[in-house]
Amino acid sequence: MPKYYIVVPEDLNLDTRLKLFPPQFKFNKDFALWVINEIIKSTAYKIKKGEPFQNSFVPECSKFLQYYHRNYRKHLRYLSENFPGIGNILWRQNYEKEQCYSYKLSPIHHGKKMTIQVITDSKLIKKIKQNKPSRIDNKIRKQYPFLIQYIDPERLTLKMKEAVNYSTQQFSITKNHKNYLLELVKISDMKNGDFYMRYHPETDGRIHTNLTGFPKDLRKFLRYDEKRLGEIDISASIPTFLYYLMSNLNNENSIVYEVISSTKSYYNHYMLVKSLIDIDSIEVEHFGNLIKSGGFYNYFIEEFHTIEKFDENLEPDEYFLREVKRIFERDFDGDMEDLRMVMKKNILAMLNAKPAQYLNEEAVFQCDFPSIHRFIKDLKRKNHKHFSHLMLQLESHFMLHLLARKMNNYFKRKIPILTLHDCIITTEDNIMELKKFMLKTLSKELKFTPVIKDEIYK
Q1: pLDDT tens profile 45-59
Q2: Which of 33, 94, 248, 328 is packed most tightly, with the most Cβ within 10 A?
Q3: Residue 340: inside a domain, yes or no?
Q4: Contact 28, 121 (CB under 8 A)
């Protein structure tokens, strides 16, 4: 019997409604539950963090719904009917010219717990799966076909019950309903084997999959061939590739020229900036030593303890107290790892943002690395995304084109290789073997030894 997993309110009263107010037509319960699930999914992606559901109506057009059930109108009217003593499950927005009817979950379910149920209507499930567009970009099929084999719903599975319980427990603490809904939607997609692979060579050059969007806290419930997963990643990845670029700025480096080719939107501007900015070699060496020692972000912690010398509006250590509160939504409890995460998030944000958006971070970075800062700032002057695209494409070239491809060939496709930006994900029994291969390969290609970390999801 086929199964399809859907997200619905835990206190959904559909059975009671059907008993007290029997529909005057042939009612398909699985179809009704699936429609409710589709509205919840659309709402989860639509609402902004902290925003209530009050105005989050979702259009459900006849051309879409009639494919799944010819009596879709009667089902939606029944779910929207405000029956005495039981209310309605859906609220409907009035019809407007050239607009579909729109629906939202009744406010009685807003901010409440959800659950994942199973529908088994084979005809409906077949239509759901048949009507889904191709979820794998043709560009991936052409350039990285070897990665597709590992996105296999028979091998990449999820302990769904445990994942849902964990997500619900976290929701009871955080009260963040948007994140909660998104987590359950992603859990149901994973359980349904509804995998996707997207590739954007013109922008970040990364491959985006269910894994890249799957919450890190929930990865401990993933299994591959029933084995726990883990990751190997490059510490301070973007600064690492920035150091690589700075070290090869004036060299005839084939990798750099392969990534920064004349087909890229930033090519002409990059070549102009490169010819105008004289990068200080002592700065580059200092920058590289921080990368190779693994102390890049920690270095800035001390710098920001005295940030008030750049910003007279700040009291000593006010910066960290404020930023921990903003990022983690709690007070600083003395954990030094919190300060490192603040530095990581804010330094990376400063590097990728428009100039002058992170003035304090720019001031500190410029103080230590003035010529590197000037290069980055000038590169972003025409379009601030030029820098992030360049860095991410360098990262992706190493992680996908060089590393993952070589891993796949070397281990003869016997070890699962799942990519997550600057990480390689595999089963826990293969972590150390892949880590050694990754370190050896990257050291050879980068011409220096990067800091590599590993972590088992548990």
Answers
A1: 887 665 555 567 888
A2: 33
A3: yes
A4: yes
